[in-house]
Amino acid sequence: MQSVRKGIITVAGLGTRFLPATKAMPKEMLPVLDKPVLQYIVEEMVESGIKEIIFVTSSQKRPIEDHFDRDRDFEIFLKSKGKLNRLQPLIDLCEKVRFFYTRQSEPLGNGHAMMCAREFVGDEPFAFSDGDSIIDGETPVVKQLVKVFNKKQASVIGVQRIEDKKAMMKYGNVYGTPVRGESRTYRVSEFIEKPAMSKVSPHGLIVGGMRYVFTKDIWAHLEKQREGRDGEIWLADAANSLAKKKPFFAYEYDGIYFDTGDKLALLKTTLHFAMKDNEMADEIKKFVCG
Ligand code: UTP
Asked: Structure pTM?
């Protein structure tokens, strides 16, 4: 039985929806309170038992390498000022995992980006996340998926279930049948991106926040994957092709998904985390309600 030790996080997109903020600053480094978005994702992976993470980056994304590296001089300075505690959680995080970097030289889609990390992963199963979604859950979502993987030894995607059929048309929909005796688990038959209202998933399953555990089987499908929507190579298309050939499961994770890919979404995400802090919550209520 193989265990999931490696993770891929793709962070090579252009982040045009945040321009000009993202001209020199990766959108994955924009803060949600006192942590960049990407740190939430790394924490999720580390708490899920991932020991090695590879970031698929681009020439614009150097601050990511600096963030997840030690800076001894700065640490000594902070210590002398009695402020090292402010950095300590990040130092502790970096000690629990090894980081690797590879580049996607052109943003040709998330499937193409994942392919850039193929050699790093080899034939091992691995976790995958995009770089701009946070899922706030009691149990880290990757950990929930790894649990399903350990039982099934097959690829797993994290899904959400929603009732609103109109809203479902805006997302990737997941189709399949519930696995008997295993709550929240479905055997996937197909993925369809933004289907028409008459074709939305009957179980209400959507891809909210990209979280997967893949077996090595995904690589052959990704290698064959042609350009899809907007001329990009999409991971969902390769996953769809894999689900038609091999067992592929969807797990309705326990957690709240937050997109951070545009201004309003990032603001809502920040408010969610701020409202979890009693002191900040009172201030925000006063500020908003007067
Ligand atoms: P998005 O689809 O949000 O695209 O990427 P984007 O380019 O980052 O942002 P906009 O649309 O121009 O504002 C989702 C995640 O996938 C990564 C991004 O870095 C982000 O973390 N990604 C996307 C890649 O790594 N490579 C790609 O070719 C596309």
From this structure: 0.96
